[in-house]
Write a structure and sequence with these properties.
about 300 residues; Beta-galactosidase, Chain A, domain 5; nine-stranded antiparallel β-sheet; six-stranded antiparallel β-sheet; 25 strands
Length: about 300
Amino acid sequence: MAELPSVVLRDPSSPLTATYVPSAGMICTSLSDDGVEFLGQRRGLQAYLSDGKTLGIPILYPWANRLSANGYGLDGGAVTLTPGVGGVRTDPNGLPIHGVLAAYPGWQVTEQSKNRLIADLDYGSRPALLASFPFPHVVTLDITLADRALTVQTTVTATTSAAVPLCYGFHPYLTVPGVPRSEWTLETPPLEHLLVDNRGLPTGERVDWPAYSEKLGDKTFDDGFDGVPAGGVFALAGGDRRIEVLFTQGFPAAQIFAPGNDDVVGLEPMAAPTNALGTGGYDTATPGRPAVSVFTIRLR
């Protein structure tokens, strides 16, 4: 397969670079500090293109994590999702997961400079996408690399009278190079821990999660949280390196993913908790009032 064109952003004040591949779902494949990589490469870009196997920083859109069924209610009606059709992928339990834009080629770059990239996806003009999420809108990613930080601003603009549910998220696969996983320290602000059933779906029960700072050791996570404070900081540290993820705006929920079989930790900004598209409790972008969210990954 021919190599897809990529965009390399360069921080004007440091050796930090970020690499995006617009035609592969606007995925960020690298965040590198003078050649030292801070994003998990996992199975690589080809596996993302062919099988949706994630790496780097993919966008999970229009819903993040899993839904409880192959469909959801809509103003007295229902939307049916068909696995394998229109980008719908399923988890091992057969539940739709991570939306429909994995490696999606329809993004259009509208602005590009040394350290900034802006791209649009006109969701409403794509019938195959509307079949699984029938809310016409444009989603815009405005990405800036500056001061040793990658900032991603997402704007959802409704293009008809229909309000657009905000249930998306991002999945930064972070790694601390040169430091054993067991010695990484995971830090979170105080949160609400969402308890889940054996399929990974929230049961509705929540427990307080005090501010956390512990060595990862051999612990694993695939845990959802709500109640993220505006400006909340999550972090992964080891040796003399520290990676912070700032939930600046529009991300009240989070997922922490730390598998036992890969040296990565996902500190994932989420616009709504898992399965919100099925259960409700999400915000919306309404006509004339675009919804903006922002997160930043900062290297210390």
